[in-house]
Design goal:
This protein has two domains: 116 residues, no CATH class; 145 residues, Immunoglobulin-like, CATH 2.60.40. It is 7% helix and 37% strand. It contains three helices and 18 strands. β11 and β12 form a beta hairpin. The longest helix is centred in the middle third of the chain and has 14 residues.
Length: 304
């Protein structure tokens, strides 16, 4: 009688399917189990015996390896809807208590050389898991900052006053328009809600000068106050076109499966598209006459 075996499988590792990431285990010719299993970064690692087709010789080729002539799959043993799940209900469910989402399965195999697989019973029943039986909250906490930094967070937008043209030597007011954003994502099969809040800003004015990070986003000024100094304004000392880039620093919180919000350690930094600002020089001249008295005077329509 072949003893039941237990296989744990990391289904989500590397985005692989069940057939390509999970491999069954066999028994030695004397029918005693000869099985070892463990965990690596890529998922389940299985050692065992397989029986070569034709000769019937038992060998210790790696189960599911390149030289193994078989491919493997499993089917749920008994579920609420056997027809929909394609289940084999020859046995009652085994209790799967080593981790979340345990399923009782039977293993089947088919020769790889068959274009249309012919699946035969191989082993079972056994338990498989959609994740390694450890605290999934600890796993999420270990990777949440990296996942946070990969979110499509919209950075703050740069606004300039005046824009797109400003004057050499004058205060040009820049300010940021940034908003709090929320995301619902799935991490390690768990529902995670993330809130990203802008908390600081770094300004690069395109002429080699930068300030920040600082907490002030700046703000709009009425037109009659343009040219006043603000916490985020800048004075250009050269004429030309300059690309102003704003980096917005976001702090985040996350909650797992509707739980309490937890702080994300560290921040995410997201840069805006550059705002091109053209710096012009102003020239002032004083005249003792006007264009009616002197049509050829500088700036007059009739001047050559």
């Amino acid at each position: 009688m072949r003893a039941p075996i237990r296989v744990m499988a990391l289904l989500f590792a590397l985005g692989l399917t069940v057939e390509s990431s999970i491999f069954a285990v066999g028994a030695h010719a004397d029918e005693t189990p000869n099985i070892g299993s463990g965990w690596s970064g890529g998922g389940a690692t299985i050692e065992g015996w397989t029986q070569l087709p034709g000769s019937g010789v038992w060998t210790d080729l790696a189960i599911g390896g390149v030289e193994d002539p078989y491919r493997y799959q499993y089917k749920h043993v008994c579920r609420q809807d056997p027809i929909q799940d394609g289940s084999n209900c020859a046995h009652q469910d085994l209790p799967c208590t080593d981790g979340p989402d345990g399923r009782t399965v039977n293993w089947y195999r088919s020769l790889k050389l068959l274009s249309n697989p012919a699946w035969d019973f191989f082993a079972g029943p056994s338990c498989v898991y959609s994740e390694e039986p450890v605290n999934v909250l600890d796993q999420i906490a270990a990777r949440i900052l990296n996942d946070f930094r990969q979110l499509p967070i919209i950075p703050g937008r740069v606004v300039g006053q005046p824009s797109p043209h400003t004057l050499l030597g004058a205060e040009t007011n820049f300010f940021a328009e940034a908003t709090e954003q929320q995301f619902d994502v799935t991490i390690l099969t768990q529902r995670v809600h993330i809130v990203a809040t802008p908390v600081a800003y770094t300004w690069s004015y395109g002429d080699g000068v930068a300030i920040g990070p600082q907490g002030s986003a700046g703000g709009s000024l009425p037109e009659d106050r343009w040219g006043e100094k603000t916490r985020t304004s800048h004075v250009y000392t050269q004429t030309g076109d300059f690309n102003v880039v704003l980096t917005t620093h976001f702090r985040g919180t996350y909650s797992v499966n509707g739980g309490p919000p937890l702080p994300i350690p560290g921040q995410g930094e997201f840069s805006s598209a550059p705002l091109t600002t053209s710096v012009w020089r102003s020239i002032t001249r004083h005249y003792a006459d006007n264009c009616l008295e002197n049509p050829q005077g500088d700036g007059c329509p009739g001047a050559n």
